Amino acid sequence: MPEQPILVLDPTGSNPDAEHQTLRERGPATLVEILGVRAWSVSDPALLKQLLTSKDVSKDGRAHWPAFAQTVPTWPLALWVAVENMFTAYGTDHSRLRRIVAPALSARRTAALQADIEALVTGILGDLDTLPAGETVDLRERLAYPLPIAVIGQLMGVPADQRAEFRTVVDNVFATHLTTEEQAANTAALYALLDALIDTKRTAPGEDMTSLLITTRDEEDGSTLSDAELRDTLLLMISAGYETTANVIDQAITTLLSDASQLAHVRDGRCTWQDIVEETLRHEPAVKHLPLRYALTDITLPDGRTIHAGDAILASYAAANRHPDLHHDADRFDATRPSKEHLAFGHGVHFCLGAPLARLEIATALRLFFERFPDARLATASDELERLPSLISNGHTSVPVCLRPATAH
C-alpha cells in the first residue's frame, strides 16, 4: 500500500464526523498526529478489538513507549499517559489495581443508587419546571452537568461546595485546545483538590468510595494503593464518572429533540430507554479518541503495513462505532437497531468499570425528563450547536432547549 501522509487531527474537534469518515477511508489504521505526537489511529472495529485484547499492546507508556520521557514534559495531553492508575497499567499491575477498585463499583453498589439518582433527577427537573413557558434553558448546564457531578460527588465523598472546582479542572483535562502550560497549571490545581480530599478522608473517613479506596487491600497479595495510585485512581473515577456521562445525556437529548421518530419509538413501545442509551453510545460515544496504547512487538496490519514496536496507538472509538463492517447504515441513529454492539466503553481488560452506573444515570435522566417535558424542543438547529473544543470529549458547549411552548397552559 502506498505511504499515506500523516493526518493531523483537529484539536478543536470542530467537524468530527468528516474526520472520522476520513480515518475509515484511509484503512483499518492510519498514521495521525495528535497535538504533535505521531500515533496509529485504529478505526476498524475488528482490528481495534484485536489490539485492545492483545498482550502485545500496552497502556504503560513508562515501560513501553520509547518516546515517553521526551514527550511528557511538553505534550498538552501528558496527564493521559502519565497517570499511575489502572487506566495506564499493563498485565499484573492492571489486574491488581482493577481488583482493588472493582468493589467500589460493584453491581450491588450501583443498583442501590437507583432511588438516589431518581431523586436527584426529580429535584433538577423540579427546578426547571418553575421556568416560564417559552423560556430557553441550556440543558447541558442544567441537567447533563449537575446530575453526574452530584452522583460521583456523593459516591466519592466530595463536599458539595467543592464540586464546581472539580468540574472546572476536569473539563480542562478533556480540552485539547489548551497549551502545555495551561494544562500543567490545571493538573496542579486538580492534584491539589485531590490531595485535600484524601487528607480529609484519612482524618475523618466516611461511607464513601474515597474512604473505601484508602483502606481496601488487594484480595490476593494484601497490598493497598500507593499514594500516587490512590490520587490518580480518584482522578480517573471522578473524571470518567462525570464528563463522559454528561456528554451522553447531552447527545441523547440533542438527538431525540432533532428526530421525533426516535422519541416516538420509545413512547409507542417499539424500543426502551435502554435502547436509546445504547444507540447514543454507538452513534455519539462520550469519547471520540482515547490516548494512548503502545505496541510491544511489530504488528502486521490487514493491508500489509506494520505498527512497529514502540509505536503509539490511538483507539478511535467514534470512528469505529460507525464503521460499515460493524453496522448497516451506521451513520443513521436508529434506536430499534437489532444489534447494540459498540465500543463506547472500551473492550477487553480495560472495559469501563463504571459502565453500569453511567447507563443507569443516562436512562433515568432521559426517562424522567421526557415524562416531565413531553413538548420540549431544541431552540436552535442541531447542526448549529457548537462542539466542545476537544478531539477526546464528544459533546456540545450548550444545548439550548425550550421546555414548553409559550402557548402551553
The CATH topology label is Cytochrome p450
The CATH superfamily bears the name: Cytochrome P450
Please give the alpha-carbon distance between the first and last residues.
65 Å
The CATH class is Mainly Alpha
Average pLDDT, rounded to a whole number, is 94
- From the spread of the alpha carbons, the general shape counts as globular
Number of DSSP helical runs? 18
Strand content: 5-15%
Q: Report the structural category.
A: alpha+beta
The helix content, as a percent range, equals 40-55%
Output the helix-strand order: EHEEHEHHHHHHEHHHHHHHHEEEEHHEE
The assigned CATH architecture is: Orthogonal Bundle
Using the CA coordinates, give the radius of gyration.
21 Å
Q: Poorly predicted ranges (pLDDT <50, ≥5 residues)?
A: none
- Give the spatial strand order of the biggest sheet: 1-2-3-9-6-4
**Mind summarizing the main beta sheet?**
6 strands, mixed
The number of E-state strands comes to 11
Number of self-contained structural domains = 1
In oligomeric terms, what are we looking at?
Answer: single chain
Give a quick precis of the structure.
By secondary structure, this protein is of the alpha+beta class.
Question: What is this structure's SSE topology?
Answer:
Layout: E1 7-8, H1 16-25, E2 29-34, E3 37-42, H2 45-52, E4 57-58, H3 61-64, H4 68-71, H5 78-82, H6 91-101, H7 107-111, H8 114-128, E5 136-138, H9 139-144, H10 146-156, H11 163-174, H12 180-203, H13 209-215, H14 227-258, H15 260-267, H16 273-283, E6 290-295, E7 299-300, E8 306-307, E9 312-315, H17 317-321, H18 355-372, E10 377-378, E11 400-402
